[in-house]
Design brief:
Order of helices and strands: EEEEHHEHEEEEEHEHEHEE
Bound molecules: nickel (II) ion, manganese (II) ion
Radius of gyration: 16 Å
Helix content: 10-25%
Number of helices: 6
Shape: globular
Mean pLDDT: 98
Low-confidence stretches: none
Strand order of the largest sheet: 6-5-4-3-2-1-14
Strand content: 25-35%
């Protein structure tokens, strides 16, 4: 089976194949632009890059409802467990086995707090290896030289990059990130959800194609198959 990447909206994705069902940063009920049609039984794992409400989103209620396990940084995992979710606390650097895939949490340069404003550990990005394909979800981050390490050591096939500026990289920095990450396919995220992060995504795609890479522009609800 091919690997399917469903775009839900903002930084939320669902990645699946015949064995894996991985929901990432499920910001759904408070995002009016989200398109969410993933059947509960398909969700096996939930990954959360950091504690901000537009990333933790509905992770806890979805875990409680479906029994899917949240994997995230230890402090945030403890918070999720306290709220009744099934949660595994991890840290940056090691491969973590999930159903049908493995993941490695990597740095992101940002902050992370719980919805109550408490410390939620370090923010993260996450590298997902599924059927030999590597997908990198950058979380919320500025441009940073760790991306060169990820590009050199792991060479992701697909990179999901925030481009909306203000809280994260803008299109210019994200285009540099795409180059450093050494990824052939770029999917932009974290833009146009609210006015503060409105950006020119067509211009970003043009910059990416100028680099000889493919920019896959997904609308919420659309699916990219590898
Ligand atoms: Ni954030
Ligand atoms: Mn965010």
């Amino acid at each position: 089976m091919t690997v399917q990447i469903h775009y839900i909206g903002h930084s939320a994705f669902f990645i699946e194949n015949s064995e894996a069902g991985i929901l990432i940063d499920p910001f759904i009920s408070h995002n009016p632009n989200a398109v969410y049609n993933i059947p509960d039984h398909k969700i096996i794992d939930i990954l959360v890059t950091h504690g901000h409400a537009d990333h933790l989103g509905d992770a806890i209620p979805i875990s409680v409802k479906t029994g899917a396990k949240i994997t995230t940084i230890v402090e945030l995992a403890a918070y999720c467990a306290q709220k009744g979710a099934k949660a595994d606390g991890v840290n940056l650097g090691g491969w973590i086995n999930l159903s049908g895939a493995r993941v490695k949490f990597m740095p992101a340069f940002h902050t992370s707090s719980t919805p109550e404003g408490d410390y939620a550990g370090v923010p993260s990005s996450v590298l997902i290896e599924i059927e030999g394909t590597k997908i990198y979800h950058a979380g919320d981050t500025c441009l940073n030289s760790e991306m060169k390490v990820i590009g050199e050591c792991y060479k992701p096939d697909v990179a999901l990059l925030p481009i909306g500026s203000y809280y994260t990289m803008d299109i210019k920095d994200a285009a540099i990130a795409a180059k450093w990450l050494n990824a052939e396919t770029i999917i932009p995220m974290h833009y146009n959800t609210f006015p503060l992060i409105n950006t020119n995504v067509e211009k970003f795609c043009y910059m990416i194609s100028e680099e000889g890479k493919s920019c896959v522009l997904l609308k919420p609800g659309e699916v990219f198959s590898i």
